[in-house]
């Protein structure tokens, strides 16, 4: 069975961070940051993917990041 890791460099370790962003229209104009995401990134090369925070948990996201 092929081992899984970062799709860019093959490294086996990842970490997560949470970010918030503005949307469009009035939320952008008033800098209302209501879109929340989990960023999963490779600790070796920095490759990252964003996941909508409302639809998943951090542990499942890391598994998905590694193709699990």
Number of helices: 2
Q: What spatial order of strands do you see in the largest sheet?
A: 1-2-3
What structural class should be given to the helix and strand makeup?
alpha+beta
Radius of gyration: 14 Å
Distance between the termini: 12 Å
Q: What fraction of residues sit in β-strands? A: 25-35%
How much is the average pLDDT?
75
Secondary-structure element order, N to C: EHEEH
- Total domain count: 1
Q: Give a short account of the largest sheet.
A: 3 strands, antiparallel
Helix content: 10-25%
Number of strands: 3
Q: What are the key terms here?
A:
68 residues, alpha+beta, 2 helices, 3 strands
Structural notes for this entry:
The chain has 68 residues and is an alpha+beta fold. The protein has one domain (14-65). The protein contains two helices and three strands. It has helices spanning 26-29, 58-65; strands at residues 14-21, 35-42, 48-52. It has a three-stranded antiparallel sheet, covered by helices on one side. A hairpin with a 5-residue loop joins strand 2 (35-42) and strand 3. The radius of gyration is 14 Å and the shape is elongated. It starts with 13 loop residues before the first strand and ends with a helix.
């Amino acid at each position: 069975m092929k081992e899984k890791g970062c799709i860019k460099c093959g490294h086996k370790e990842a970490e997560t961070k949470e970010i918030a962003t503005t949307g469009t229209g009035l939320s952008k104009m008033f800098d209302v940051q209501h879109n929340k995401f989990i960023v999963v990134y490779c600790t070796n090369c920095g490759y990252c993917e964003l996941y909508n925070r409302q639809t998943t948990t951090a542990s499942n996201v890391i598994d998905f990041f590694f193709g699990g």
